[in-house]
Automatic annotation (TrEMBL):
The keyword Cytoplasm applies. Allosteric enzyme that catalyzes the rate-limiting step in glycogen catabolism, the phosphorolytic cleavage of glycogen to produce glucose-1-phosphate, and plays a central role in maintaining cellular and organismal glucose homeostasis. Transmembrane segments: none annotated. GO terms for cellular component: cytoplasm. It catalyses: [(1->4)-alpha-D-glucosyl](n) + phosphate = [(1->4)-alpha-D-glucosyl](n-1) + alpha-D-glucose 1-phosphate. The modification N6-(pyridoxal phosphate)lysine is found at K673. Keywords: Allosteric enzyme, Carbohydrate metabolism, Cytoplasm, Glycosyltransferase, Pyridoxal phosphate, Transferase. This is Alpha-1,4 glucan phosphorylase. One of its GO terms (molecular function) is glycogen phosphorylase activity. Its cofactor is pyridoxal 5'-phosphate. Belongs to the glycogen phosphorylase family. SUPFAM superfamilies: UDP-Glycosyltransferase/glycogen phosphorylase (SSF53756).
Length: 821
């Protein structure tokens, strides 16, 4: 509520952005906000002053956006995600507010290099891989296309981890991005909420208590305090809010225990609360790790739901209208417990009837699925869930009872199908299926590529799809080209502007105009000169950080993503070993010089993924110092891959490795970023690769391997990997070299188990796809030898990627799911 008399206060004049005005403001903030003069200021001081100057302009647009009434906006979107991999924000905000050129000129007049200070901004450690980066792209696109939205997540103090290498092994260290504060965020202590765990559930008291109303009495409570970060859309049209929750204890210190000498016990509540928001994805290989992860998911889901309901009631008064004004999107199963939490709020706090509460819940939620891997569809042991969230367990059972009754009434399900639909997995130790809960509690369930969506209907959600055949729909992912072309690849951006004008800056599909330059020899040369400059920049960075010497004239073959067996970094490494053998055996051949770069983190408890990182480093050590292949093959693992590193590696890539086992990658977004930056894709027909092939043309992408249908057919027939290995001399030799200790002489058996997994089961079809992959790589060599053909294909990739803009994806969400004009 506004204070008396404040509604007529004059609004500040729009801020000017001329270089001389910006320069004065920067010096002013340096003096009065940081306490330094220009002579004494260090680079990090200049960075802070610049951020504050940009932030002021973002805040003007932010306040203007948030002052719009609900009546003007209609429905508001609330995007719940455990990750938001936003990266550095200075360039992003300056570019979207159209300040970049003026800011650069202002800093130059002050003798400050904008590139030098921009590199000092830490990456926000709020995510790990594609899921989190997608959420960040979506937040920017929602602001760009004028969708009013809040993002909700956790303010991780240490993120997942900072990855370093020790003798080739991954070492996990805390990511300390908040050590010196975060100038982009604003604490909102007035919007704090209590979140409870454990305790007892009793019937609600009083003559007005409803038949389904209960009273939950948590035995443990923490405070969720929000920190808001403004997310600016393109040209500053709208600024939305990313609200991240920090956990704080109700009693920071238990003085009675402290005074009794139990100093550690006195801080137990504080430590327990702080653990909730310290680390992203705590290792769940232990019971304690599983409990912490479930606590995290409920903590941020509960705080977010309380905030959404409070805001709705503040404006509209009636909880019954919630679905008309709020669209809550669950980004994967991590926030699925929000379905039960909203039911608890409606039943126990607002006293609604169960059926009415369930109707409101389903009309409010929608759910995005990101995986077909059953183990990635989270489930929690019933005893753990019931101990931490006893009231929610009751609600899950009540929802399940109605769900199964509905399935039985339909008459189309046998006992096996009924069991698959159930929210409780009865196979072995009983578990709560969070994917099924999200599906049942949402009016829309979407996949993130056409193939993924089709497979959802016949695999993980086949029976639920039969029960609700209209619920699954597709929304193919996209990326924001503001960051992934305009900002990270300035040379290419300017070349495109010169060739086709500025229309693509507002409509990515206008990139199609670049097609007419694909056969233009002069344009090809300029295009490849930009690529060469990007490669030189990456080579310089890797030499500085890792003392790695790579030749920018070589083909840069890059695979950067979360390390996982289904993403098949192992296939890439085995092929590198095979190529290494072939180069040494046939030195007379005209080999295309190649640099293979890897990057990505392995989950701390994922043994095989960490072993794959070690193998990549062991192979690199052998290959890079062998004079027989000098200049022809280099292998390098790049530690601590993050958004900032991606912004250097992606523009430098010639070849993008998108080689997951067909049918296992939901979409991929790295593939889109690489292609719009002029890299050719080598990949399987998996995820969004299928649609990329359709858009760029099958002649401009290198496809290999089994299709998803063929993978399933092989498994069904009893696939024998030994047969495939026996038929491939190159594969057999490479596997034998790795397994026998050629690359691990200090521990000859290090990779025996890893390679035995390929011989004995090969679930990820490494052996089955190897020969096809190897042949595709040799086709890449042939294409690379003809610069004109390579340049033409690369230009076509850039020109035809406009459809993969996250702006298009968000417009589809807004039209089809959120019902926002």
């Amino acid at each position: 509520m506004a204070l008396k008399g404040t509604t007529n206060l004059p609004r500040p004049e729009p801020r000017q952005s001329a270089p001389d005005v910006l320069a004065r403001e920067i010096v002013e903030r340096l003096t009065y906000r940081i306490g330094k003069n220009a002579v004494a200021a260090k680079p990090h001081d200049w960075l802070h002053a610049v951020i504050l100057s940009i932030r002021d302009r973002v805040i003007d647009a932010w306040i203007s956006s948030t002052q719009k009434t609900y009546e003007e906006e209609g429905r508001r979107v609330y995007y719940l995600s455990l990750e938001f991999l936003i990266g550095r924000l200075m360039r992003d905000a300056a570019s979207n507010m159209e300040l970049m050129d003026d800011m650069q000129a202002a800093l130059a007049s002050l003798g400050v290099d904008i590139d030098l200070i921009a590199a000092l901004e830490p990456d926000a450690a709020l995510g790990n891989g594609g899921l989190g980066r997608l959420a960040a792209c979506f937040m920017e696109s929602m602001a760009t296309v004028d969708v009013p939205a809040y993002g909700y997540g956790i303010r991780y103090v240490n993120g997942m981890f900072r990855q370093e290498m020790s003798d080739g092994w991954q070492v996990e260290l805390p990511e300390t991005w908040l050590t010196h504060g975060n100038p982009w965020e604003f604490e909102r202590r007035e919007a704090s909420y209590e979140v409870g765990f454990g305790g007892l559930v009793d019937p609600a008291e009083g003559e007005n208590a409803g038949p389904h109303q209960m009273m939950w009495k948590p035995v443990e409570r923490v405070i969720a305090t929000p920190y808001d970060t403004p997310i600016a859309g393109w040209r500053g049209k709208r600024v939305n809010t990313l609200r991240l929750w920090e956990a704080q204890p109700i009693d920071p210190i238990l003085l009675d225990k402290f005074n009794a000498g139990d100093h550690l016990g006195a801080l137990s509540e504080s430590n327990r609360a702080e653990a909730l928001t310290r680390v992203l994805y705590p290792a769940d290989s232990s019971a304690a790790g599983q409990e912490l992860r479930l606590r995290q998911e409920y903590f941020f889901s509960s705080a977010s739901l309380q905030d959404i309901v409070r805001r709705h009631l503040q404006y509209f008064g009636s909880i019954q209208t919630l679905p008309d004004k709020a669209a809550i999107q669950l980004n994967d199963t991590h926030p699925a417990v929000a379905v039960a939490e909203l039911m608890r709020i409606l039943l126990d706090i607002h006293g609604l009837d169960f059926d009415e509460a369930w109707d409101i819940t389903r009309r409010t939620f929608s759910y995005t699925n990101h995986t077909l891997l059953p183990e990635a569809l989270e489930s929690w042991p019933v005893p753990l869930f019931e101990r931490l969230l006893p009231r929610h367990m009751q609600i899950v059972y009540a929802v399940n009872s109605r769900l199964l009754a509905e399935a039985r009434r339909s008459g189309q399900f046998d006992d096996g199908a009924i069991s698959a639909i159930s929210l409780i997995d009865e196979g072995g130790a009983r578990r709560v299926r969070m994917g099924n809960l999200a599906f049942a509690g949402s009016h829309s369930v979407n996949g993130v590529s056409a193939l993924h969506t089709d497979l959802m209907k016949v695999t993980v959600f086949s029976d639920l799809h039969r029960l609700y055949p209209a619920r699954i729909n597709n929304k193919t992912n996209g990326v924001t080209f503001r960051r992934w072309l305009m900002q990270c690849n300035h040379g290419l951006f300017e070349l495109i502007r010169e060739a086709i004008g500025d229309a693509f800056m507002d409509d990515a599909e206008a990139l199609r105009d670049l097609d007419r330059f694909a056969d233009d020899g002069a344009f090809q040369q300029r295009f490849m000169a930009v690529k060469r400059a990007n490669k030189e920049a990456l080579a310089s960075l890797l030499r500085k950080r890792l003392n790695a010497r790579i030749d920018p004239a070589a083909l840069f073959d890059i695979q950067i993503k979360r390390i996982h067996e289904y993403k098949r970094q192992l296939l890439n490494i085995i092929e590198a070993v095979s190529l290494y053998d072939q180069i040494r055996s046939h030195p007379e051949k005209d080999w295309a010089p190649r640099v293979k770069l890897f990057g990505g983190k392995a989950a701390p408890s994922y043994h095989n993924a960490k072993l794959i990182i070690k193998l990549a480093n062991d192979v690199a050590r052998a290959v890079n110092y062998d004079p027989a292949v000098q200049g022809l093959l280099k292998v390098q693992f790049v530690p601590n891959y993050n958004v900032s590193m991606a912004e250097v590696m992606i523009p430098a890539a010639d070849l993008s490795e998108q080689i997951s086992t067909a049918g296992m990658e939901a979409s991929g977004t790295g593939n889109m970023k690489f292609a719009v930056n002029g890299a050719l894709t080598i990949g399987t027909l998996d995820g969004a690769n299928v649609e990329m092939r359709d858009h760029v043309g099958e002649e401009n992408i290198i496809i290999f391997g089994l299709t998803a249908q063929e993978v399933n057919e092989r498994r069904a027939k009893g696939y024998d990997p030994r047969e495939a290995i026996g038929q491939s001399k190159e594969l057999s030799q490479a596997l034998n070299a790795i397994a026998s200790g050629v690359f691990s002489p200090d521990d000859p058996d290090r990779y025996k188990g890893l390679i035995d997994g390929i011989y004995n089961s090969d679930w990820f079809m490494v052996a089955a796809d190897f020969d096809s992959y190897s042949a595709a790589q040799r086709r890449v060599d042939e294409l690379w030898r003809d610069p004109a053909i390579w340049a033409r294909m690369a230009i076509h990739n850039v020109a035809r990627m406009g459809w993969f803009s996250s702006d298009r994806t968000i417009r589809e969400y807004a039209r089809d799911i959120w019902k926002i004009p």
